[in-house]
Amino acid sequence: MIDNTAMFKIPYGLFVLSAREGDKDNGCIINTVTQVTDSPLRITVVVNKDNYTCKMIERTGIFNVSVLAQTVPFSMIQQYGFHTGADTDKFAAGQGVRAENGVKYIETHTNAYLSGKVIRTVDCGSHLIFLADVTEAVLLSDAPSVTYSYYQEHIKPKPEKKTKGYICKICGYVYEGDPLPDDFICPICKHGSADFEPLSE
Ligand code: FE
């Protein structure tokens, strides 16, 4: 048997994956970043193809990962996680600092950033896995990293009974708004709008 909720016992984190192409900066929320080897230092990141950030990384081969800390406010998850970024500039308000690779990282509510240079891409259908050499790794603070469980318990707003919105059938994430954009991607479990259902009254 397959119980999808068993998958959430894996300690997912929350990260902003960022890229740059020409004069456009972009980013999205991902929940899996894994160190694969120590020498050479390599990581994998997994990102939904519907995120414009994914397409930018395919073309440019470089990215940054900002590791979100427990202090992250819900507004930041909304800013980076609720749209593909194809026609919005998520860094429009001038947030972010450029790392050595020229790509922005988030300097607030993060405890570290990593820069990656893609050496292999694996197509997993809805998602791409990027295997990358780490070209820069900087510690920004000692604040603990935010886990998915912590996010669920302490950061995600508790929906009120009359809230209009949609709930992710996979992980319980609540999108507060109506309608749910067709290209919406659950920032937590990476499933698309088809896996959401309206909140019951
Ligand atoms: Fe979800």
How do the helices and strands line up, and which of them pair or pack?
Blueprint: E1 15-21, E2 24-30, E3 33-37, E4 42-48, H1 52-60, E5 62-68, H2 74-81, E6 97-98, E7 104-105, E8 110-123, E9 127-139, H3 148-155, E10 165-168, E11 174-176, E12 196-198
Antiparallel strand pairs: 1-2, 1-5, 3-4, 4-9, 5-8, 6-7, 8-9, 10-11, 10-12
Fe (iii) ion (FE) binds at residues 168, 170-171, 173, 186, 188-189, 191.
Note down, in words, how this protein is organized.
By secondary structure, this protein is mainly β. It has two domains: about 5-150, Roll (Pnp Oxidase, Chain A), CATH 2.30.110; about 160-200, Rubrerythrin, domain 2, CATH 2.20.28.10. It is about 10% helix and about 35% strand. The strands form three sheets. It has a seven-stranded antiparallel β-sheet. It has a three-stranded antiparallel β-sheet with strand order 11-10-12, with no helix packed on it. Strands 6-7 form a two-stranded antiparallel sheet. β3 and β4 (about 40-50) form a beta hairpin. The longest helix is centred in the first third of the chain and has 9 residues, at about 50-60. The radius of gyration is 16 Å and the shape is globular. The relative contact order is 0.20. The mean pLDDT is about 90. The chain binds fe (iii) ion.
